[in-house]
Predict the structure.
Amino acid sequence: MSTPFHEAEREPQVAPPRTVQSPVRYAVVGAGWISQAAFLPGVAQSGNSVVTALVTGDSAKATALARRYGIKHVHGYADYEQLLSAGEVDAIYLALPNDMHRQYALPALQRGIHVLLEKPMATSEADCEAMIDAARSGNAKLMIAYRLHFEPATLAAIELVRSGKLGRIRAFSAMFSQSVAPSNHRASHGYWAGPVSDMGVYPINAVRNLFGEEPVEVSACGVRDPDLPFNFDDTVSVTLRFADHRIAQFVVCYSGANIDQYRILGTKGDLEVSPGFTFGVGLRHHLTLDGSTQEQVFESTDQFGGELQYFSDCILNNREPEPNGEEGLADVRVLAAIERALESGQPQNLGPFQRQRRMEASQVRKLPPVPAPELVDAAEPSKG
C-alpha cells in the first residue's frame, strides 16, 4: 500500500476562482464501501458530473473500478499531490476515515479544487475551521455530504414542522442501530469511528434542522458489551437541551438489530419517520393529527447522485452549497461535546452558535435509484 500523503502547511491567500465547465470532473478519494456501493453508481445519472480520477492504495481494486466506470486516471495515496497539480480534476469526493479528512481536504481546497466531504466533517472543531478557512482562501466550494438534505421525505418533514401543523414542537427522539462486524475498520479506532460519530450525526443533524435551533447543553451515557472487541461504548444514549425549552434524545448502537427512525412531538400531533436515515429504500412518514394516523411512503431516490448533482450545480453556477463547512462544524461541536460528556459523566454546555442557513424545499432531488453493484474488496459494516 502507498504511503499516505501528508498535509503541507501553506500561507493563507485568496486565489482567483477556477473556471469549471460541465461536466464537473471529480476524483474519488477512497474506494471503500460507501464509494463503491453508493457514490460511483450514481455519478452517470447526475447529468453534470463525471469521475476522471480514483485515489486508492489497492491497485487491483483501482484497476477493476477504473475499467467498470471508465475512469482515466488512477493514483496511489503517495501520488495525491501530483493529482492535485495535474489539472485532471475540478473537485474531489472524499470518503476516507474521519481522522484523515483534514489531511486530504486541506491541500485540495487551498488549490481551489472543490471538495464534497463525507460526514462527519472532521474529528475536531479546529480541523473543521481549518477546512473552512482553506475553502475561503482557495476560492473553493466545500460541501459536507448530507445526502438527506436533498431527500424528499426529509425535506417534507422539515416543511411540515415549519407549517405549524404539529403545533409547537416539544421534543424529538430517535433510534439508530446496526450490527458492526468486529473486523470492520470502525470497530477499533475509538470514539471518532464509533456509533456516535458514525451514526449520531444523523439524529443530531435532523433535530438541529427540524427545530431550527442549536443545542445549548449535551449529556450522554454509554455502555460497552464485554463480549465485543470494540474499544468504545457500543451503545450510547444522548440528550440535547435547547434554549427554547425543547429537548431531544437519541440512542445509537453498533451491536443491535438494524433500525433507523425518528419522531417529532408537537402540541397538535406527531410525526414518525421510519425508516428515517437510510438509503436504498423509500422513507416513510407516519403522521398523527387529532388521533388519526396516516402513512405516506416516499419513492426511493438515488440520494448520492442527487447530492452530487446539487453540488456540481453549485460549482457551475458559483453558488454556496447549503450544507457547507458551517453545517459540518455545527454537528462536530455537538459530537465533541458528547465525547466530553461520556468521559466526564457530566453535562456539557455548548457555546453560542448561530447557523446562517437552513435546508430548503427547493433542494430536493428525485433521481431514480440505481442497482447495487458488485463490490471489489469492500464490504458493508455488518460484513467486515
The first strand starts at residue 24 and ends at 29.
